[in-house]
Amino acid sequence: MSKLYLDLSKLYNHRAETSGIGTPGEDNYLKLNSLSFNQCLKNGEVECILRKASNGDNVICDSQILDINNILIKKITLFGFCVWGYYKEKFILKYRDQTEGIAIAYFSDVVYPLTLSINNVMGIDRQIYMEGSQVFCDFIWDQQKGFMYYSTTEFENATQVNKIIFPDNCLMHIFAITIEN
Q: In terms of CB atoms within 10 Å, which end of the chain has fewer, N or C?
């Protein structure tokens, strides 16, 4: 399968990485210690490109629509994290034939990954989030160790997708999307 790294820069509405003092309440102080922007980053078979633009470097989910013009998708991998909790959200894929598919993002909290605090989680929460949340990398976040996660959805058949609709969850941040066809 070939990989394509989607450009999310038109949707960016938040800046996580700052080289100096940011605006309190608007910017977070993300210092990537082992990663770089604008180049391919890999963790095993999973890879993405983190991009920076004048308007930010990530998307806070707010029902945005990403037009991708009939790109064939067999597998989609979403990269990001949540703040203030653990969330499972649906990304709607609008197919060329007007039907829909769903990609699921299971992301843990940026500073408190469920995989490390699993003893404090019980019942269905433990099952839901452990099945899909996987650590992609770590970095320094507000002087603490932070984590970026990835979640992959693979479809039975490759289908042409026109649009990806993000969920409405202001606590979920998306940094990159990689598709395979």
A: N
